[in-house]
Amino acid sequence: MNIAIASGKGGTGKTTIAVSLAYFLATSGQSVQYIDCDVEEPNGHLFLKPKIESRKTAYVMVPKIIEEKCTFCGECSSKCQYNALVSLPDIPPLVFPGLCHGCGLCVHICPENAIIEAKREVGFIEEGTGIEGIACIHGILNVGEVMAVPLIRQVKEGSLESRVHIIDAPPGTACPLVATISDADIVVMVTEPTPFGLHDLSIAVAVAEKLEIPLGLVINREREQFQPLEKYIDDHGMEILARIPEDRRIAEHYSRGEIIIEALPELRPLFSDLAINIGKAFGKSVIGV
Ligand code: SF4
Ligand code: SF4
Fold first, then answer.
1. Which residues 6+ apart lie within 8 Å of 138 measured at CB?
2. How far apart, in whole angstroms, are the C-alpha atoms of residue 82 and residue 95?
3. 191-229, pLDDT tens digit by residue?
């Protein structure tokens, strides 16, 4: 089962929720894997503290032109959707590796077999076992690298069978989010009850709806109900999976790298409700025992 934890914007408490849910499920008898797809800034491991057992470099395949074979026909550059190849008169196409998505199309369509693939390093992937036996995997994108999607795909390829997957999605609503949640069974959207939170939530919800993925909502840091958000939820017939109250102690424990329901056991029932509500939305319990 793939449970993606997402948010339209950063700073909503997405990782706090994701880590606590993983911890709750693991301490309830479930086998859990934490898949951190927030490859620009993964931080689930700061809380789950995995002992890293493997580390591998991640690559994307980019085209390399064999100049002697190229007839400058321009076929490859005209077909590349990402403008990673640019044709100029009487010279082989220029390659812009930073724009290449590694789709391999140009290699296949070159009539002269003048394109081969070469590896380009984009980051690395680490795996290990964290507290309560939670299997952890995360990717770390190289500084200045823009190609998050290929790395996210490779991180997801490390998912283990027979485990509940808690997938920490990158913030925002662009391609990295789509790549992360595209095969999720349910998306848990974490939002905060503010105008900014509602604005970004509405965009993220539109993405999930377009992908036809079931979704539920966690309202985090709630002091009192924010009526525009409540109206939005009503209008969209959305399910509220949990409401987490504003509590300064949560921020304090977070800043120390502590899992909030371990540090504040009185919050455990909130995550029990969250797990039960996810199970109801999915039609199958996610709690092991
Ligand atoms: S398709 Fe092949 S032959 Fe044509 S410009 Fe590209 S690399 Fe050269
Ligand atoms: S591999 Fe795909 S994205 Fe990269 S240059 Fe070729 S056609 Fe463009």
1. 35, 36, 38, 39, 42, 44, 45, 125, 126, 155
2. 11
3. 999 999 899 899 988 998 899 999 999 999 998 889 999
**Using one digit for the tens of pLDDT, what is the confidence trace for 18-68?**
999 999 999 999 999 999 999 999 999 999 999 999 999 999 999 999 999
Q: Sign of the CA dihedral 285, 222, 42, 134? A: negative
Alpha carbons 205 and 139: distance in angstroms, whole number:
25
**Which residue has the least CA distance to atom 8 on ligand 1?**
70
CA angle 115/117/119 to nearest 5° reads 150
Task: Please state, in angstroms and rounded to a whole number, the distance separating the CA atoms of residues 20 and 50.
Answer: 15
| Ligand 1, atom 2, residue with closest C-alpha | 110
Q: What is the pTM of this model?
A: 0.89
To test the ligand 2 pocket, which listed residue (105, 107, 146) has its Cβ within 8 A of the most ligand atoms?
Answer: 105
DSSP labels for 157-213?
TTPPTTSEEEEEPPSSSSHHHHHHHTT-SEEEEEE-SSHHHHHHHHHHHHHHHHTT-
Asked if residue 37 has its Cβ within 6 Å of ligand 1, the reply is: no
For residue 136, pLDDT beyond 90 = yes
What domains sit in the chain, N to C, each tagged with a CATH number? 2-50+130-282 (3.40.50.300), 59-121 (3.30.70.20)
